Amino acid sequence: QVQLVDSGGGLVQPGGSLRLSCTASGLTSNYHAIAWYRQAPGKEREGISCVRLSDGSAYLAASVKGRFTISRDNTNMVALQMNSLKPEDTAVYYCAVKDGVVLTTNPSQYDYWGQGTQVTVSS
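Now predict its structure.
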C-alpha cells in the first residue's frame, strides 16, 4: 500500500522560507514521479512542481520558478524548499505520486496523495 505523508507547513512572514517534505512509503521501485500541488481558498488546484525519483529531473511552474526548488533523496523523500514567500503562496500544499517517469502536473496522472499541509504567508 502506497502512502504519502507531507509535512512542514506553517505560518511565515512575507519574504520568509519554509521547507516541505513528502515521504513516500510502499514504493517498490524508483520508476515514479512525485509532484507538489497547492490549493488556495476559492481557487483551483495548481500543480507547481514535480521530480523524477530515478534521476532527480524536475519541473517548476513559472509561478514559483526562481523561488522554489524541489529535490529528492534516495529514501523516496521529496523536499520543496520555498524561499521569498509571498502572501499569494498561501494555500494547502499536497504531494502526490504517479507511476512512470514522465514529468507532468496533470493531476489525473497521480494515483496517491498526501493529506496536505497548510502554508500561510502573512505579516
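Residues 29 and 79 are 19 Å apart (CA to CA).
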